[in-house]
Structures are given as C-alpha cells and as structure tokens.
Amino acid sequence: MTSIRLAITELRRITAGRLPKLAVVALCLIPLLYGGLYLYANRDPYGKLDDVPAALVVEDTGVRQPDGTVRNVGAEVAQELLDGHAFDWYRIDAAAAEEGVRTGTYTFALTLPADFSEALTSTADFTPRQAVLVLTTNDANNYLARTIAGTLTSRVHDAVAEQVGTEAADRFLTGFATVHDKLGEAADGADQLASGAGTARDGADQLASGAGRLADGHRQLLDGATQLESGAAQLADGLGQLRDGTKTLPSDADALADGAEQVAAGNRKIADAGATVAGVAQKIADRISSADDELRSELVAAGLTDEQVDKALAKLQPLRQELLAGNTKLQQVNDQLSQLADGSEQVAAGARKLADAAPQLASGIAQAADGADQLHEGATALKDGEQSALDGAVALKDGAAELASGVGKLADGAAQLHDGLESGMAGVPALDDDTRTATAQTIADPLAVRNVAENEAADYGAGLAPFFMTLAAWIGAYVLFLLLQPLSTRAIAANQPSWRVALGGWLPAALLGMVQTTVLYLVLMLGLGIEPVHPVLTLGLMWLASACFTAVVHGLNALLGATGQFLGLVLMVLQLVSAGGTFPWQTIPDPLYPLHYALPMSYVIDGLRQLMYGGELMRVAGDTGVVLVWLVAGLALATYAARARRVWTPAQVRPELVL
C-alpha cells in the first residue's frame, strides 16, 4: 500500500457522508475566517479615524499684535483640525468635553487654553513661556486612542512650533535687514557728516574771517550811531522849537479861513453884478448890429436920399465901434470877475481845509517832537548796542577760530565712524524677501525627513497580511487534525514501512492545507485587493508553509497523541509572541530571541513580506530553506512515531487523555 493510497483512504474516510463533507469544508474555511476576517476588519483603520468622536475645546482669547490687530492662533489651529477631518471633531466647552470623555461620548478631548496665542508670542517681549496643548484621554474608552491622539497632538505641536518659529525667525531676520539698512543709512550719514564737517570747517574759517570784518563793520556802525545820537539831539531841539511855534496854528488858520470865505463871498457878488452888466451890454451890442437896417428904412421913409442916409449912418459908425469895443472889454472883465470869484472860493475852501487840518498838523508836529526825543533815546541805545555788538563780533571771531579747529576734528571722527559703520554693515546679513523667508523656515524647522521606501505595503491591512496569513495557515493545520488521523492503524498493523505510513498520514492534511491557503489567498487578493509583487511565488510559499505546519502538527500528534495536539497549540502561542508579526521582533524580551530564530513561523512571515512587498529574493531562499528543514523534521518525527507505534503499549490501547 503506497502513501498516496493511504492518503486517499483517509480522505474517503473523512468525506463519507454529508456531515463529514461539511466538516471538511468548514476546516478548509477556518484559516479564511481567521485571517480574512481579521484583515478585512483591520484593512485601513487609520482611514476611518474620521468616525472617531473627539472633543475640541478652544478657550484661546488671542493676542494683540504690534499693528493693532488681534490674532487667535488657537482658533486657527482649531479650524485646521476641523478642515482636516482627522477625527470626528465636536467643538464644545470644557465642562462638556470632560463629561464626554469620562462617559465615553468622546474618545478624547483636545483643549487650547486661554493663553495659547499669548504664550506662543511671548518671545516677542522677552517673557518666553511655552504654550500648552491639553490632551484629555480615558483608557477605559480605548488604550490605542490615547497613542493615536498623542501622535496628533505631536503633529499639531510640530506644525504650530514650526509656524511660530518661522514667524519669530522672520521677525528676527527682518530686524537684521533693518539693522543692515540702518547701518547703511548711518554710514551714508557719517559720510555726509564728514563731508559736511569739512565744509563746516571751511565755513568756520570763513566765519572767523567774516567775524573780523563784522567787527570792523560794527566799529563803523558805532561811529555812525554816535553821529546819529548827536543829530537826533539836534533834531529833538529843533522840533521842540517848532512845536512851541505852532501852538496857535489852529486858531490862526481858522481865522484865515473865515476871512478867505468872506472875500470869496464878496468876489462872488461882484462877479454876479458884472455878469448882469455884461449881459445888458451884450444885448445892446446885438441891437446895434440890427439897428442900421431899421434906421435906413426909417430915414428913407422920412424922405432922405440914399446919399443922405449913407452920410447919416457914416456919422454913427464911430459910435457903434466904440460901443462894440466897450462890450468886448466888458465881457472880458466879466470872465475875469467870474474866475476871481471861483479862485476866491477855492482859496476859501483851501483855507478851510488848512484850518481843519491845522489841529492835526500841530498835533503831528508835537508828536514829531516827541518822536525826535524817542529817536534820540533810541540812537543812544543803538550806540550802546553797537558797542555790545562790536564786543560780540570780536568774541565771534575768536569762537569761530576755535569752531574751525573743533569741526576739523569732527570731520576726522566722522570719517572714522563711516569706515567703522561700513565694516559693521558688512558683518550684518542683507537678505532679500525670498532668502529671508527660506532662512526663517529653515531656522524654525532645520530638519526635514525624507521617507525613502525600499518596499512599501499598500495599507495597514496589507502590512499585517504576512503575519495573519502565516498564523491562519498554522491554525488551519492545527484544526485539520481534529478530523484527520495522524497515522493509519491499519497500515501500521500491515507492517507498512514507517516512512510510507507517516507520509500517507501527512498528505491529506497537506492537500487540505493547500486548499485552505489557496482560498485565503484568493479572497485576500480578489476580495480585499491585496496585490503581492510576486503573486505566484507568494502562493507557492503559502503552500510550503501550510505543508510545513501540517507536517509539524502531524508529527506531534503522531508521536504524542493528545499531548502532541496540546503542544501544537503551545507552539502556536510561542510563535505568536516571538515571530515579530506586528512590532519588530527585536522589541520582544531577550529570553524569546532563541524562539524567534528557531521556530518556522518567523521565516514564513519574513519570506511573505519579501514576496508581497518586492524585497530580496535571496532572503526568501534562506527562509524557504528553514521551512523545508522544519517540514522534513515534522515528517521525520511522524516516521519515528509510526515505527514506535508498531509496539503496542497500554497507553495506546487505553490512553489517559483523549481530545
């Protein structure tokens, strides 16, 4: 009887009937139920954190900035958290948050205190203190939630610290730029000061020379002031006499005006009489011009001849001429009388104006006399002032000479100051806006992390898949022998070779294990979308792992029976804690290190990681070698058990423990 015949016989035994067939199907699905459901449930837990309720308390009152505006960093952080949707945030007050975390309504609470903004900007006025983020957790809600929330607060801390640090560094560097600019302005000012001091020194020399000339001019002015004082004294005396002589001027002018008005009135009467006489004379003259014709007519009518008439009229001609000449003179006299009357009236008007102005004239003369006295006093003061000015000009000359010397020293010092400021300015960085911004960001966050992923899992579920696929394969191998017989009693009784009996007892489990791992693999690939870099090799390694695990469990069950079945469970637990399926295996306690190096599950997990994420195939070869060693060891143990079972013992006939 071959090993294959033994395997087929065992498979027929366990599938004889409907219920056994269902049991076989159930056994094939156990790894799927374990590995598939666990990976499905934990495929991407971080992608569902936005469903985790968290309380957000913003008590920040903000801080007033130098430009007068109020900035609330706490509100800014809160808005970023709300917009980021990392958790299902509820913005509430402190009391409600504390109550919610205590009762489990909220997984945790994040509080931004009232002085959050003020503390962040405290370095600006050199009263530095740290801002505080208050994280309230309750492990009774979930322990890992505290770790995840702590990671969030660390990120918020880093982001806020970087932002505030960048702003502070930017202000610091802006101060450097301001200092550089001011030093440049100061250097320019020092240069201008040096140039101006040189000019001032020349001006001081000119001032000293001018002060000498000024002193000479003041001497001349002093002489002129002395003469002015003497002349003002004479003027005051003369005006005093004039004032005395014009005291009666108003009354005299008034009398003169009255007389002139009387003369004007008389002349006007004479002019009016002359005008009357001139009018009569003019009428007579006009009558004489037309009287010749009338007289001729009357003489002719009287019977005189023309000759007689002409002689008579000739006798009257000299008289007529004299009358006309007298009229002409009379008219001229009349015009002169009219002009005289007009002139008299003008004289009278002028005399009246003079009379009216005489009081003011007299007063003006008096004031002029008083002014002359004041002029004399002012001239005396001017002479004294010019003496003082002369003394001051002499002192100015001496001071200007000293000033020229001092300004020369100032020019030398200003030149040294200019050189020193330029030297200092060279030591102060002058940054443009882009460089200053980049420098501030580097100061605030000097370390950048660049993640270089040699090999990368798609998500959390894909990252845990190698561990749970391996663990599911062991569980699948373990449960198979709840139904399968490790060794065929009939084959042993027929004295079949031990290796054949052992191989025949292992092959059904190996075949069913391949079915288990194939179903698990297909569901993970097609259902959960976990795509290995080397899909065929991955499936092959899973088959090998299942074969190895079934061989080990088979050997233990074959040799020790129920005790071996229990040891298979213990061996699973030992591998579970030492294989490094979740945390790096180096984090396990030191006494467990030998288990990690010795047991097969560690190598199956490592091999699956290399194949699924695109790692080193040489490592897979080494891992495969270790797994093959364990497979052979399991078959060897089963072979030894088959040989040992040839001799029946009381324990085999009636075992003390049956599982």
UniProtKB/TrEMBL annotation:
Cellular component, GO annotation: membrane
SUPFAM superfamilies for this protein: Methyl-accepting chemotaxis protein (MCP) signaling domain (SSF58104)
Domain ABC-2 type transporter transmembrane, chain residue ranges per copy: 444-639
Keywords: Membrane, Transmembrane, Transmembrane helix
Keyword Membrane: yes
UniProt-recorded name of the protein: Putative membrane protein
Molecular function GO labels: ABC-type transporter activity
Signal sequence interval, chain numbering: none
Native organism: Pseudonocardia thermophila
Membrane spanning residue stretches: 21-41, 460-484, 505-530, 536-559, 566-585, 620-642
NCBIfam families, sorted: pip_yhgE_Cterm, pip_yhgE_Nterm, xxxLxxG_by_4
InterPro entries noted in UniProt: ABC2_TM, Phage_infect_YhgE_C, Phage_infect_YhgE_N, T7SS_ABC-Transporter, xxxLxxG_rpt
UniProt entry tagged with the keyword S-adenosyl-L-methionine: no
Membrane topology: Multi-pass membrane protein
Location in the cell: Membrane
One Pfam match: ABC2_membrane_3
Main location: membrane
